[in-house]
Design a protein that fits this description.
about 170 residues, mainly beta, SH3 type barrels, 5-stranded antiparallel β-sheet, 14 strands, elongated
C-alpha cells in the first residue's frame, strides 16, 4: 500500500458485506473483509460456512487526495464510512496488518480457542454478574461462548458466558 493510501472502516447493510466488497472492487478500491470459518446448525445439519469476523464491517484502502472516495457512500451494499464530522476516520495500519497476519493459507482468520473442558467439569466464573460462582461445564457454543449449569435458588440453571470468563475450579 502506498504512503497516501490508508485503511478506513466501512459499515455495510445487513448481510451485504460480500456485495459491497464486490462493488467497491469494481470501482477500483482495495478492500479487506476478514472472515473465519464458523459452524452453523440449520435444518438438523451442521455445516461450516465463511462468516465475517466483524459482521457488517470491512476495510477499504483510500487515497483521499487521488480517489473519489465519496462515491463509497452510494455504493450498493454500503451503509456508511465510519468517521466523525462527515469525514472517515483512518484505521491504524497495524490493526489490518495484524488481522492479515492471522490468516491461514485458505484466507480465513484463525481464532484462538480457549482450553476445552469436558462436560461435567467444575468451572468458576471469573467475570460478570455470576463472578465467583461455581458451575458445571456443559458445552461450547459457536460464538465463543460456553454454556454452564449454575446452582441458583436451589435449581440448576443454564447460563451462557464468554469462554474467557471461565476457568477450571
Amino acid at each position: 500500500m502506498t504512503e497516501m493510501r490508508r485503511w478506513y472502516a466501512v459499515q455495510s447493510q445487513p448481510n451485504a458485506e460480500n456485495k459491497a466488497v464486490a462493488h467497491l472492487t469494481r470501482q477500483g478500491f482495495e478492500t479487506y473483509l476478514p472472515r473465519y470459518l464458523r459452524r452453523r446448525r440449520h435444518a438438523r445439519r451442521v455445516e461450516t460456512v465463511a462468516a465475517p469476523l466483524f459482521p457488517r464491517y470491512f476495510f477499504v484502502a483510500i487515497d483521499m487526495s487521488a480517489q473519489r472516495w465519496r462515491a463509497i457512500y452510494s455504493t450498493v451494499g454500503v451503509s456508511t464510512l465510519v468517521g466523525h464530522g462527515g469525514f472517515p476516520t483512518p484505521v491504524p495500519e497495524r490493526i489490518v496488518a495484524a488481522l492479515q497476519a492471522r490468516e491461514a493459507a485458505d484466507g480465513f482468520i484463525q481464532l484462538n480457542r480457549p482450553p476445552a473442558f469436558r462436560a461435567g467439569d467444575t468451572v468458576r466464573v471469573l467475570d460478570g454478574v455470576f463472578a465467583d460462582s461455581l458451575g458445571l461445564y456443559e458445552g461450547m457454543k459457536d460464538s465463543d461462548r460456553v454454556a454452564i449449569l449454575l446452582d441458583l435458588l436451589g435449581r440448576k440453571v443454564r447460563v451462557t458466558v464468554d469462554a474467557e470468563a471461565v476457568a477450571a475450579a
